[in-house]
Design goal:
The complex is a heterotrimer.
Chain A (H helix, E strand, L loop, with lengths): L2 H9 L3 H8 L9 H12 L4 H23 L8 H16 L6 H23 L4 H21 L1 H4 L25 H23 L1 H11 L1 H6 L4 H27 L9 H14 L6 H19 L1 H17 L4 H18 L2
Helix pairs in contact in A: 4-9, 4-12, 4-13, 4-14, 5-6, 5-12, 6-12, 9-10, 9-12, 10-12, 13-14, 13-16, 14-15
Chain B lengths: L34 H24 E8 L6 H17 L1 H4 L3 E8 L6 H12 L5 E4 L3 H6 L1 H7 L3 E3 L14 E3 L4 H14 L5 E6 L3 H16 L3 E7 L10 H10 L3 E5 L4 H12 L8 E5 L5 H4 L10 E4 L8 H14 L7 H19 L6 H8 L3 E4 L2 E5 L6 E13 L2 E13 L2 H4 L11
Parallel strand pairs in B: 1-2, 1-3, 3-4, 4-5, 6-7, 6-8, 8-9, 9-10
Antiparallel strand pairs in B: 10-13, 11-12, 12-13, 13-14
Helix pairs in contact in B: 2-13, 7-8, 13-14
Chain C lengths: L3 H32 L6 H18 L4 H22 L9 H22 L16 E3 L4 E3 H23 L1 H11 L1 H6 L4 H27 L5 H16 L4 H21 L4 H15 L11
Antiparallel strand pairs in C: 1-2
The chains are: A mainly alpha, B alpha/beta, C mainly alpha.
């Protein structure tokens, strides 16, 4: 073929093909959340406790999105991995075994991954209500076990004053002024986000979406469905474990609430609010939920629970994919209007 | 005051001790104002400054941390009512200071919410003093922040014994689980003449504290605890039947029960009666949490004969309490009753006011803690004081029995132990042994 | 050691606990089996029923039995528009949306109750005759527990008769087994759904009232006991009254026995048991194997 026709063919590549091939390229606006996070650090230095909690929640929600939004596994027990990560770091530090923060994260990730692998192999053979029940029971089981083992885990009261070494020996974790914690959480979130993003746009991530949409078909094309699901679950568990570990380090404290039903349900609600299977749903949902809950719940706690309940009902009935489900069609319509000849 | 520092290059300045009131000033636009207008403007400004400055020196910001939502909301409400009642009944004692209560929701016993709340109260609202804590896990979780934040913190409920050892800035006006548990253990052996006991307890730190306290005292006084039954966590199903069945079969002289106030407490008397344990000769005893005043009437006949050891019940017969209960019923309804959480709030506020007076409105943590150590007060529960060594409460314990009087259930005090210090710290048991000064 | 009287006491205690679980959960099992809908808000209907019953006894002075009937009727009637207008839209929705909707409903109802009535727990004062003990020859046992056992068994028999011997019962069973086929036979499946939902919610209300003595009653009721009701249904198998009955009794007994003899680990075992059971038979003890 002549160079001219080759060029002609290239420019004739179907826009859909081009979109799919270029999906993973970072877009300009993707810088915005990180800039906003940095701006928050300077603009609101007294709100860093809230900010750190928010960053950790986003990371946790991202890990759940991998499992829920992409692989389609509905679980109410994801707090298990958060708690495993938190307790690993907490107990290692409290009993003087290991208190370096960054390597602590890696150990926590490994511990959570082990639990994820084990439970995934066993539980992911089931689906639907059975799987939901199993995840619920596993979480409850672990919480009970942690309470029974209160001599090591601190039980209901938890482990307080967990001694975490300063990062690189310089940046201390202060219980009152959380500047170190905030930056630390931000960096960890960034790395975690990059990992999730890479997975999602890789062929592995695509196959997860396929499994979610049509499991039978995936079996038919020969994809190792169960292996993929378990791998996804394990990776998600590791990330959730890291989120839990950061929580324990930032708060210098760990207790049963890290494993609680409240935490497991809240992260699910956050993804529902923001939109699941869409990467930034975790960000939107977490910010929306935590800001509203922090300010509304402070002032009107019962009205908050009522409003949240009604909002969830509305989202489930109408806006099937949270904020993204509402905003995206509007954006597309606006784009279409704009580019219309 | 920086904004009254005028730039007066070239102007002769006559200063007096009142600040810059007599200074001539040029306006920002370089014009010299008329003398008359300037003087009255200055005066007004000065008065405003003085008033606001005075108000600032005399307004004490109190950070109140209580559960205002969720299952604990009723405890938060009782405590808040106690605080408000103190401020109402003792308005003259509070002058010339004004107290601004900044209330924040500790939500639940998870520790996490409390940490955020305390951090914000200290760094954003910059409170002078902290007051509250219903849940022990929250007091434990926020100890490090209270120490780092350098403010005095007065605990109005959280009862796990070693809490006051976790920070030198904690002072407790409520109770330690050992106050009632230990005293009951002694009383069970010496006054109730019990030889054997079974202990049923909710499986979380206050329950374990209660168990240890009772057992230590009971066995030191010659008794024997023949069975210890953990009855699930505080969030477990409030059905005591299997546990009480087991206790009944052991045939002890007394059954000592600790469960958190709320639906667990009401289930205790019901199950006790329904299983016929009274007829089987087993006496039900416990700390006052199981006969919480505002739930007592609903327990019905089953509660008659219940013997408890506590530092407060609404039927206590002293002048302060009579005034307290009367004012309570007037404000909150004739059917409403105060309980130990309300008294915690009442006495907690009294402590705050004491600190304000002792430090003339300028609260520092060292001065406040010194003022609190050894503080005495006539509370509705009787005379109380703060132990200078442990910063924990010293108060009377009353052995009471529930009786039916005029169609109502009333707690009749049969004996009283004066000035009880927290036995856990006196005996230096476990974590109570390390007390920071 | 363990003698005959103890064993009987254990049996009775466990059965009574199981009966409460059964009465509340039977509605959930049937509606889930019929509609394939994960209704996590079932406990909220039990809570509503409990509140109606307790409040009508306290504020309207109704007797225990009348209050129970009132609770059943009120909640059943209230659930009809809820099903028609809200639940119906989600029958074909993704499982996640069903979970979210019902969690939202739980929150909304809990908050509504807190706002309207208050956050404290409500006390159900049983009629005098039901408090205390009853002599049954071999031993004396708690009257109320005995009553629960009798009532629960009666309800189970009635339900079984209704399902096995009436036309509508047959229609429901047909629709549970194969909805499309049932519809193509001319059965009005929509109407069946509504009736079943109303009955199920009414049963939950009854269970909420009857069980208030053991489970208490406060606005957070549905969240506290969510896992227990779901466990009973999952273990029993969806859509089968006999399944729920057996599962509730087995779980009630095991829970009682474990709590009595192994209080330290008692609460743990129920979860271990459920997990093992569901792994062995994902469809529950009596459910149909996955289609």
């Amino acid at each position: 073929m002549t160079t001219q026709t080759v060029a002609a063919v290239r420019s004739d590549v179907h826009p859909a093909a081009r979109t799919l091939a270029e999906r993973h390229r970072p877009r300009a606006w993707e810088v915005v959340p990180w800039l906003a996070a940095i701006a928050f650090f300077f603009a609101l230095p007294t709100h860093l406790g809230f900010g750190t909690e928010l960053l950790i929640t986003i990371l946790f929600a991202l890990s759940l999105d991998l499992v829920l939004g992409y692989a389609g596994i509905v679980t109410l027990g994801h707090a298990v991995f958060f708690g495993v990560g938190a307790y690993t770091v907490g107990m290692l530090a409290k009993y003087g075994i290991w208190s370096e923060p960054i390597t602590g994260l890696l150990i926590a990730a490994a511990a959570a991954a082990v639990v994820g692998l084990g439970s995934g192999l066993v539980l992911l053979r089931t689906t639907g209500l059975t799987l939901l029940m199993l995840t619920l029971c596993t979480r409850a089981l672990l919480e009970e076990a942690a309470n029974l083992g209160h001599d090591w885990t601190g039980g209901f009261d938890g482990l307080d004053s967990v001694p975490i070494q300063p990062i690189f020996g310089i940046f201390e974790f202060n219980p009152l002024y959380l500047t170190t914690q905030y930056v630390y959480a931000l960096v960890v979130l960034f790395v975690g986000f990059l990992i999730v993003r890479t997975i999602v746009y890789a062929p592995f991530g695509q196959s997860l979406t396929g499994i979610r949409e049509n499991t039978l078909r995936m079996h038919a094309v020969g994809a190792p469905v169960n292996a993929r699901l378990v791998t996804c679950y394990t990776i998600s568990a590791a990330i959730a474990g890291v989120a839990g570990a950061v929580w324990a380090q930032a708060n210098l404290y760990v207790n049963l609430s890290t494993l609680g039903l409240d935490r497991a349900a809240t992260v699910l609600i956050i993804l529902a609010l923001g939109g699941y299977g869409r990467l930034y749903g975790a960000f939107i949902g977490a910010i929306l939920y935590m800001v509203l809950s922090h300010y509304l719940a402070k002032a009107y706690p019962t009205a908050w629970q009522l409003g949240l309940g009604l909002l969830l009902m509305v989202i489930a009935l109408c806006a099937r994919n949270g904020m993204i489900g509402i905003v995206e069609p509007l954006l597309q319509r606006w784009r279409r209007v704009r580019s219309a000849p | 005051m920086p904004w009254v520092a005028w730039n007066n290059a070239g102007m002769a300045v006559a200063r007096d001790t009142g600040g810059s009131r007599n200074m001539r000033r040029t306006s920002l636009y370089g014009k010299v104002q008329g003398r008359q207008g300037m003087k009255s403007r200055m005066l007004l400004l000065a008065v405003l400054v003085l008033v606001s400055g005075a108000a600032m020196a005399q307004e004490i910001k109190v950070g109140v941390i209580l559960p205002f939502s969720g299952i604990g909301a009723e405890f938060g409400q009782q405590t808040e009512r106690g605080i408000n009642l103190y401020m109402k009944l003792n308005a003259d004692r509070m002058k010339p200071y004004t107290f601004r209560l900044i209330k924040r929701d500790e939500k639940d016993a998870s520790g996490a919410s409390a940490k955020v709340v305390v951090q914000e109260l200290l760094t954003q609202d910059k409170v002078d003093i902290l007051l509250g804590w219903i849940y022990s896990p929250n007091a434990i979780a926020t100890a490090a922040q209270v120490t780092a934040g350098k403010v005095p913190a007065i605990i109005t409920n959280a009862g796990t014994a070693h809490i006051t050892t976790l920070s030198p800035n904690y002072a407790r006006v409520s109770f330690s689980m050992w106050h009632a548990g230990y005293a009951m253990g002694e009383a069970a052996a010496t006054q109730l003449k019990a030889k054997t006991a079974v202990v049923g307890y909710s499986d979380f730190p206050p329950g374990k504290d209660s168990l240890n306290a009772f057992r230590t005292a009971f066995e030191a006084s010659g008794g024997k605890v023949i069975d210890e039954i953990p009855m699930g966590g505080p969030a477990a199903v409030p059905d005591m039947t299997p546990f009480f069945q087991r206790a009944k079969e052991k045939q002890p002289d007394v059954l000592f029960v600790f469960v958190p106030a709320g639906d667990h407490a009401t289930a205790v008397t019901r199950t006790y009666a329904a299983l016929g344990m009274k007829e089987a000769g087993i006496k039900l005893i416990g700390p006052g949490d199981i006969t919480q005043d505002n739930k007592l009437q609903a327990m019905g006949n089953a509660a008659v004969g219940l013997t408890t050891m506590h530092h407060y019940n609404a039927d206590l017969d002293n002048a302060e309490n009579q005034r307290f209960v009367a004012a309570w019923k007037q404000d909150y309804g004739a059917d409403s009753v105060p309980d130990f959480m309300a008294v915690g709030g009442y006495d907690g506020m009294a402590a705050v006011v004491h600190v304000a007076h002792a430090q003339q409105g300028k609260i520092t943590v060292e001065g406040a803690m010194t003022a609190l150590k050894g503080w005495t007060f006539d509370s509705p529960r009787g005379p109380i004081s703060i132990d200078p060594e442990t910063r924990d409460i010293v108060m009377n314990e009353y052995l009471s029995e529930v009786v039916m009087q005029g169609g109502r259930l009333v707690q009749k005090s049969t004996s009283r132990i004066d000035a009880v210090k927290d036995p856990c710290k006196v005996l230096k048991i476990g974590p109570c042994a390390n007390i920071p000064k | 050691m363990i003698n005959g009287v103890d064993v009987i006491g254990m049996l009775l205690g466990g059965l009574a606990a199981g009966m409460v679980l059964f009465i509340v959960s039977v509605g959930l099992s049937v509606t889930m089996g019929l509609m394939g809908f994960a209704n996590l808000a079932h406990g909220s209907f039990a809570m509503l029923g409990g509140y109606v019953i307790v409040l009508s006894m306290h504020r309207l002075g109704l007797g225990f039995v009348s209050a129970l009937l009132l609770g059943f009727v009120v909640v059943a009637l209230v659930s009809i528009p809820v099903e028609r207008l809200l639940y119906r839209r989600l029958y074909r929705a993704a499982e996640l949306d069903q979970v979210l909707f019902t969690i939202g409903l739980v929150f909304a109802l809990s908050a509504a109750v807190t706002l309207l009535i208050g956050p404290e727990n409500q006390q159900l004062v049983l009629p005098q005759v039901l408090q205390g003990q009853l002599d049954i020859g071999i031993t004396r046992y708690r009257t109320y527990s005995l009553l629960l056992i009798v009532v629960g068994t009666l309800i189970a028999i009635l339900l079984w008769l209704a399902f096995e011997r009436t036309l509508i019962g047959a229609q429901i069973r047909a629709a549970v087994d194969n909805r499309r086929m049932a519809a193509s036979l001319g059965i009005n499946v929509d109407r069946l759904f509504t009736i079943t939902f109303a009955l199920g919610s009414g049963m939950a209300a009854l269970g909420g009232g009857l069980g208030a003595e053991f489970l208490g009653l406060d606005p957070q009721y549905a969240l506290k006991y969510l896992v227990y009701f779901l466990i009973v249904v999952a273990v029993g198998g969806l859509g089968r009254v006999s399944g729920v009955f057996s599962a509730a009794l087995i779980l009630g007994l095991m829970d009682f026995v474990l709590k009595k003899y192994l209080p330290k680990g008692g609460t743990l075992f129920i979860y271990v048991l459920t997990i093992l059971l569901l792994l062995w038979r994902p469809q529950g003890l009596f459910g149909r194997a996955a289609r």
